[in-house]
Amino acid sequence: MSKKYDVIILGAGPAGLSAGVYTVRYGLSTLAIGKEPGGMASEATVVENYLGFSAITGAELTKRFEEHAKKAGVELLIYTNINSINKRGAGFEIETDKGRFSAKALIIALGKKKRKLQIPGEKELAGKGVSYCATCDAPLFKDKITAVIGGRNSAVTAALFLAKKCKKVYIVYRRDKLRSDLVLIERVRKEKKIEVVYDSVPISVNGKERVESLTIKRKDRKEELKLDGVFIEIGAVPSTELLTKNLKLKLDEEGCIVVKPSMATNVQGVFAAGDITNSSNKFDQIATAVGEGAVAANTVFRFLKNIKY
Amino acid sequence: MSKKYDVIILGAGPAGLSAGVYTVRYGLSTLAIGKEPGGMASEATVVENYLGFSAITGAELTKRFEEHAKKAGVELLIYTNINSINKRGAGFEIETDKGRFSAKALIIALGKKKRKLQIPGEKELAGKGVSYCATCDAPLFKDKITAVIGGRNSAVTAALFLAKKCKKVYIVYRRDKLRSDLVLIERVRKEKKIEVVYDSVPISVNGKERVESLTIKRKDRKEELKLDGVFIEIGAVPSTELLTKNLKLKLDEEGCIVVKPSMATNVQGVFAAGDITNSSNKFDQIATAVGEGAVAANTVFRFLKNIKY
């Protein structure tokens, strides 16, 4: 027998925990299942743009989110892998490595994962000069030298953002042309602090305590760029592996869950919030995740009480 | 000559301040103009559902929001009345009682205002026993009898707060059931000082110098409740008086600004966020306002840099 809840929230990041704070206030029994509390937000070196906290580490903010959710009455099952999501009658059953749980409604808030380079030094120097969030970490690189890996909008935007703080910013891109919007490319041209290194693939991030250099392969020739920070902006991917198999959730071309303004998905009883959705104009932030979680919770309440949503 | 900014944000509540934190991070000079910091959120007795703060007064949370925005670099012009919003060439000019200011883009985050009952005595006795803010005015009603008009979250929260100070608190509601969160309804049940008067509509507030009683119609029978204070908590209406005159902003049937997922309005260069919009499925919360502010700021940045949005 699986333990029964009104709502199971898949994911314990900002979207999931915000949703949970609301669902318990609506009197709905709520279980949130996640690999780790905080999701991608927990990795941020410093968060300065979630209103109310002018500067807080991702880890500390995550702790506050987790404490808030627990205090409100959300049951938290973290460090837990979800094996499958199954429709059962009018409800759903979740199989995890810690048991089975069932619910009348689901909120999917599994977030995204930053795509990794998967080169030596990347993992070892993460948080020590290797970053996946320019907006979060730029202030730490004032008057320093950095590189952004990638050549699409997110990478170029990150480089332009970094150029305001840094002494020099490389854009390291595997192609011979940036693939961002033309205006962005023009801005890069005008920004003397930025040097675009074309036809180049990162080979390793190097350094003892912190990042000291980046080795790249440029048209079959190895080069070493001396620098203090490496920003990896080669995209993030929605964590939707589990969702299409049994649920047949509608995803967009990037794999994000397509939601209505109510955060309802195409499957009755299944709602979604946060980076995994196509909502908030796809601006993936703690702020937008928290807002979407609130909306999803409100809609779940309406769904379960047969109120129009 | 008016002082020039990249962005002017109209409103200094959660949506406006969140937007400001983002716009300054994008390097855009930003002025936020508001009547008072925090907007309606500042009047909340206690906020328990904005992730990260398990219980905080609206006043304290507002202080944190304001400090965050200032520290980020938002110029704040508060306690200021906006007289008009005008299109000037490719930009906008704002006339206030503290001078003129111009900007290339606007973010409208003026929020909502508490709805009035529009019954005899309400206006005449405002500030003399009639109040729209329990947090602000509860201390004036120590050991007295008060009534809260309304039956949703804001009304029930106000009644619970007043019960800490008052001898007795009526909740006067037109329906036969409260429509607030279940946890709040349970707290009301346990609070012996609160009496819920269902199926009742206020007819007049009575008194010479100050409030002495409230006349209600209860299932077609008139009754008079002897009391000292009446707190009106029947919802809110968007503050859009200034917006349709010169800007021709598109509003929905409830007067909310119609926005796209990017928070763009129908007028080029004008964006909006928070309770005043039809976004977030019209779930007016601090959480959703903060999220919408972030999206609006991102879109303003893209608009000003000619990036597709």
Tell me the layout of helices and strands:
The structure is a homodimer of 309-residue chains.
Chain A: E1 3-10, H1 14-25, E2 30-33, H2 58-72, E3 75-77, E4 82-88, E5 91-96, E6 99-108, E7 112-114, E8 130-131, H3 134-137, E9 145-149, H4 153-163, E10 168-172, H5 182-190, E11 194-197, E12 200-206, E13 213-218, E14 221-226, E15 229-232, E16 236-238, H6 243-246, E17 270-272, H7 286-304
Parallel strand pairs in A: 1-2, 1-6, 2-3, 6-17, 8-15, 9-10, 9-15, 10-11
Antiparallel strand pairs in A: 4-5, 5-6, 7-16, 12-13, 13-14
Helix pairs in contact in A: 1-2, 1-7, 4-5
Q: Could you explain the architecture of this structure?
A:
- The structure is a homodimer of 309-residue chains.
- The first copy, chain A, is α/β, with parallel strands linked by helices.
- Chain A folds into 2 domains: 3-114 and 236-304, FAD/NAD(P)-binding domain (3-Layer(bba) Sandwich), CATH 3.50.50.60; 130-232, FAD/NAD(P)-binding domain.
- Helix content of chain A is 24%, strand content 28%.
- Chain A has helices at 14-25, 58-72, 134-137, 153-163, 182-190, 243-246, 286-304; strands spanning 3-10, 30-33, 75-77, 82-88, 91-96, 99-108, 112-114, 130-131, 145-149, 168-172, 194-197, 200-206, 213-218, 221-226, 229-232, 236-238, 270-272.
- The mean pLDDT of chain A is 93.
- At the A-B interface, helix 1, helix 2, helix 5 and helix 7 of A face helix 1, helix 2, helix 5 and helix 6 of B.
Feature tags:
7-stranded mixed beta sheet, FAD/NAD(P)-binding domain, 2 domains, alpha/beta
In short, what is this structure?
Chain A has 309 residues and is α/β, with parallel strands linked by helices.
